[in-house]
Amino acid sequence: MSNSRVLCLGEILFDCLADQLGLKLDEVQSWTAYPGGAPANVACALVKLGTSAGFIGAVGEDTAGNTLVQLLQDVGVDTTGVQRHSTAPTRQVYVVRDLAGDRSFAGFGKYQTSEFADTRLEWTKIPQSLFNDADFLVMGTLELAYPDSEKAVYRALELAEQYNLKIILDVNWRPVFWEDENTAKSKIQALLNRFDFLKLTKEEAIWLFDTTDPGAITYSLNSLEGVLVTDGENGCSYCLGENEGKLPAFSMSVVDTTGAGDSFLAGFIHQLGKFGINSLKDPKIAKNMVIYASAVGALTTIKPGAITSQPNAMEVEAFLASQT
């Protein structure tokens, strides 16, 4: 293990992926449940690459919750920060896929989005001791949609600032989790100056900043040390330590894009922990970090599911060696 320690706060859930491609929700005949949730995906991907990680989130006291906690433990993620809720169920998300394997959210089954355990994350139960040993805090924005988990986000930010962690936001905006788009936007924008690194999709960049230029985004917020803007098969652009660039995506036989962006982020954080933030001033190291991240993301698309498909460090190195 490297000595970087990463805390990932947010949702862990089951992505129920349609077994049949190109069908609408009511046409799908069968589903396969895969463990997921962006922060949990990042934590698992990090551990597989060799960086220790802990997960902070809430699941139900149900079979799904038991399975997910066991999975985290099997992978090697620290589950000290996992809370169990006695009545709220563990979240399941239904995902339909087009003929190319690209996914879109199709709902939450019989529950409302606010009824799941992850919305009940309690700020008072977040273990302060976790922050004492950590270097990075990673979070998304879904938790801002619900009163309890929103308080937990603010508490985690306070602790991260108190213990001098670098704070990374993966915007991961999903309209289906929110009642109102404008509320989402204002809540996210109110927090942007508290982050050190920002990872967002091209669509999220346009939504929040009216630009896809990571340099322009960096200079619009004084706090940022790095911005990564991903665009799926079109690659990604970055601004890291004043070094800007754009990289194409690796050409892969895509089976399922679920979790690819989370693996990309994990690859970047793994490299950041390995080389240190000061190394971002070196344009070659900064570029190589993003190439590595892109490889981790690309390798996640060649098998179904977000966590099961994540590569280990040896697989990433072998893949990168095969590309030169």
CATH topology type: UDP-N-acetylmuramoyl-L-alanine:D-glutamate ligase
Specify the biggest β-sheet: 9 strands, mixed
Mind telling me which CATH architecture this is? 3-Layer(aba) Sandwich
Kindly report the spatial arrangement of strands forming the biggest sheet. Answer: 5-4-1-8-9-10-11-12-13
| N-end to C-end Cα span | 27 Å
Total helical segments: 10
Shape: globular
The helix-strand sequence is: EEEHEHEEEHEHEHEHHEEEHHH
**Which class in CATH terms?**
Alpha Beta
Q: Determine the fraction of residues in helical runs and give it as a percent range.
A: 25-40%
Describe this entry's structure for a reader.
The chain is of the alpha/beta class and 324 residues long. The protein has one domain (2-9, 38-89, 124-323): Ribokinase (UDP-N-acetylmuramoyl-L-alanine:D-glutamate ligase, 3-Layer(aba) Sandwich), CATH 3.40.1190.20. The chain is 36% helix and 24% strand. The protein contains ten helices and 13 strands. The radius of gyration is 18 Å and the shape is globular. The mean pLDDT is 94.
Question: In short, what is this structure?
Answer:
The chain is an alpha/beta fold and 324 residues long. The protein has one domain: Ribokinase (UDP-N-acetylmuramoyl-L-alanine:D-glutamate ligase), CATH 3.40.1190.
